[in-house]
Amino acid sequence: MNTSALLHQAVQLARHGKRAEARDIFLRIVEDDPRNELAWMWLAGLVDSLEDRITACENVLAINPSNEKAFAYLGKLKRRRDVENYPVEIEITKTTPGHTSIDRLEEARYLEQEGKFDEALMVYKVEAAKAGDTHAFNEIYKKIVRIEELQFDRIRFVSPRAAIVRLTLTWPLLYLSLALVQVGLSPLSHPTSYLWFAFPWVVLGSYLIAVSEVRSRHAIWRRLFAQNGDGTFPARLAVGSVGWLMVLLPMILIVIDSLNRLSDFQVPPRLF
């Protein structure tokens, strides 16, 4: 069987989940033709050990240096190797003896929220090196890759406090616009007390919504729910629900008032 037929057979086996059989055929192909780029590409995903995958990618790039997929995959594999070889004896800041891996992962998440990416990476890498199974390692590794990509792309960090302020402004500005339209852009000529009385409630409600959506160790979680973290799902749901209620009720009042005005509207207008 010629090389082209062997490649087709191996690809079909790999696509049908028969990894071991496909791998054996690809290995036969590269033994006969060490510069077969396609076979090495498939082997990079089929071989078991991390070092063998790295070798396969390096062989692809030796054949075709412009292969962007192989270059990107090789970078990920090397970062994973660095994580697996990371020294676990390093002293962890922000943690105390006796804390579990879950405690340290939570602390790393808080460090992320505060924009302390280097410290968070240090914790994640140590915990990845100590991971007891593949699933736990992969979950931590995803966090490491995410932070490294943020640093590589120079994504500007926005603090939780700034994010809360920005989100809080959204609903009050919308409500203020609707209220001004409702009174004909002349609030002094057409005073409508309930519109302005409801404005602080919209501000507070919008603030609660923002707090529930932005993960941060806000005082609300500690004072109202006796939680030291960034709020459990039930706590966030409760705060967010109250916030939406405080925002939507004034909006509904504006809609009702608008419908009432439309019911009295006449063309031409009545003369007084």
Description:
This protein is an all-alpha fold. The protein folds into three domains: 3-80, Serine Threonine Protein Phosphatase 5, Tetratricopeptide repeat, CATH 1.25.40.10; 101-152, no CATH class; 160-264. 72% of the residues lie in helices and 0% in strands. It has helices spanning 3-15, 19-32, 37-46, 50-63, 68-84, 101-113, 117-129, 134-152, 160-182, 193-213, 219-225, 233-264. Helix 9 packs parallel to helix 12. It is elongated. The termini are far apart. The relative contact order is 0.06.
Brief summary:
By secondary structure, the protein is mainly α.
SSE layout and pairing:
Layout: H1 3-15, H2 19-32, H3 37-46, H4 50-63, H5 68-84, H6 101-113, H7 117-129, H8 134-152, H9 160-182, H10 193-213, H11 219-225, H12 233-264
Helix pairs in contact: 1-2, 2-3, 3-4, 4-5, 6-7, 7-8, 9-10, 9-12, 10-12
The tally of structural domains comes to 3
Q: What's the helix count?
A: 12
Q: What is the terminal separation in angstroms?
A: 99 Å
Share in helix? over 70%
> What string gives the helices and strands in order?
HHHHHHHHHHHH
C-alpha-based Rg, rounded: 30 Å
Strands, count: 0
Q: What structural class do you assign from the helix and strand content?
A: mainly alpha
Mean pLDDT: 81
Low-confidence stretches: 88-98
Q: Sheet bearing the most strands, described?
A: none
